[in-house]
Amino acid sequence: MSRIQSMKKYQCFIGGCWGEPASGDYFESVDPFLAKPWALIPRCDARDVDAAVAAARTAFDRGEWASMHPSRRGQLLRRLGELIARDADRLASVEVQDNGKLYAEMRGQLGYIPHWFDYFGGLADKIEGSVIPIDKPDMFTFTSHEPVGVVAAITPWNSPLLLATWKLAPALAAGCTIVVKPSEFTSASTLELMKLVDEAGFPAGVLNVVTGFGPEVGEPLTSHPGIDKIAFTGGEGSGRRVAHKAAQNFKRLTLELGGKSAQLVFPDADLDNAVKGVVSGIFAATGQTCIAGSRLLVHDSIHNEFLDKFIELASTARMGDPMSAETQVGPITTQPQYQRVLSCIEMARAEGAECVLGGKPAARPECGDGWFIEPTVFANVSNSMRIAQEEVFGPVLSVIGFREDDEAYALANDSPYGLAAGVWTNDQRRAFTAAKRLRAGTIWTNTYRAVSYMAPFGGFKNSGIGREGGQEAIQEYLETKCVWMFYGKDVSNPFVMR
Ligand code: NAD
């Protein structure tokens, strides 16, 4: 796949129209492999947020979308999925150029994303209420589920299209309208997606995109009185600020935040499979995933053997151009993140952890000027060290030994986060016990990094609030209304509760 060579200039998408931001300003988006700008992104501000929320509000409150039958909504979602499948190559290339993820991974994601629109399109006309056999005479009582309203969808830079899809598909199926704010580092693919939204035939204002920075766009959006619900994916600090804003007028809120997920390797595990699973958990996507399995808890009896095998495999990782089919580990997406990963590596060294692999920028010719860091492993880590407690969001693994199963569960749970965990064992009793004892939203046993449109995804503790994916996800975009209908003759004593 080839790169876009000349500078591409994007526009924002508000009320079904493409246009300049109110400021007239643009900022550069940088290709992480070339470390060179490749696109200009509109620098929106509160004025554009006002316009986008007004457009979404109008589309929600009146007009074609508001009165559209849910079956038709479902058709539109499925049509969008078809268009994404048609343009998957192009969208994948844009994503790779903007965030440096491997083309092979992005092409796979783009082939899979249509399933979200298909699945939630199918759910759009199956949002059913219930009749309550109420304990009062002459009363018919039922519930209905209505769209929550105008949604602010805020996404991070690591998987822009996938994480936007996790919000857009259920929100649209529920009948909401949306203002999307992608990360300032990776806005291009979300704007490309809007071209397909337009082509699919969604009414104007149902989907809007405002691009720019957290303080200039994210804050006005999250504090806007016209927003009913915020669906946020990003870091814990930003998530906390968003939650404060949401609390001002009790906006509905889902948060998908970070993680420090543990991979537990028990002595009875198939070690070769476990090695592959742990490599995939921390070095796939260059460790820049919320579900990175960044803490390896390995039983003392197999510690050295496992580590030797692990290093042997991790050392073979081919780094380089993410567009190339040969590449296995791409660059860090942003320069600030590159600096942060390097500073976490220094922090681990200063804490006394032993660097047994990598631990430095990758100075390989095939890495060019990109922001590459060698796959890095620290042994002799104590779980109380900052390197074991804080999210790095990069290719850095901390290895911690354990002797007893209870100790492994306690170590795994001794974290402010609870997004995911991996368990490697051939003992069914141990697998079930681990699944019960581990405090995380997703437990993978003898596998890792599997996601599906059918499965709920989200975090315990500081990893977030709410779930995306599966039938639960649509509930996050609905309000329940309870309707009471009295069909008796005489209203009873008005001074007594019925
Ligand atoms: P970030 O928090 O810096 O930014 C996320 C988004 O929030 C961006 O669009 C940003 O502009 C916006 N933002 C920043 N400050 C804001 C504010 N005050 N108000 C409103 N919006 C604001 O995160 P990031 O660096 O882009 O992404 C990395 C983080 O995302 C990691 O911590 C990672 O674990 C997390 N993440 C979580 C999941 C999950 O599903 N749990 C998935 C992917 C990434």
Describe the structure.
By secondary structure, the chain is an alpha/beta fold. The chain has 2 domains: 8-257 and 463-482, Aldehyde Dehydrogenase, Chain A, domain 1 (3-Layer(aba) Sandwich); 262-445, Aldehyde Dehydrogenase, Chain A, domain 2, CATH 3.40.309. Helices cover 38% and strands 21% of the residues. The chain has a 7-stranded mixed β-sheet, with helices on both faces. Helix 2 (70-86) runs antiparallel to helix 4 (103-123) and helix 2 packs antiparallel against helix 5. The radius of gyration is 24 Å and the shape is globular. The protein binds nicotinamide-adenine-dinucleotide. Residues 154-158, 163, 181, 183-184, 213-214, 218-219, 222, 233-235, 238, 241-242, 256-259, 290, 391, 393, 419, 459, 464 line the site of nicotinamide-adenine-dinucleotide (NAD).
Topology at a glance:
Elements: E1 8-9, E2 12-14, E3 17-19, E4 26-31, E5 36-42, H1 46-61, H2 70-86, H3 88-99, H4 103-123, E6 131-132, E7 139-147, E8 150-154, H5 160-174, E9 177-181, H6 188-200, E10 207-209, H7 214-222, E11 229-233, H8 236-248, E12 252-256, E13 262-265, H9 271-283, E14 295-299, H10 303-314, H11 335-351, E15 354-357, E16 376-379, H12 386-389, E17 396-402, H13 405-413, E18 417-418, E19 420-424, H14 428-437, E20 442-445, E21 460-461, E22 464-465, H15 470-475, E23 478-486
Parallel strand pairs: 1-5, 8-9, 8-11, 9-10, 11-12, 13-14, 13-19, 14-17, 16-17, 19-20
Antiparallel strand pairs: 2-3, 4-5, 6-7, 7-23, 12-22, 15-16, 18-21
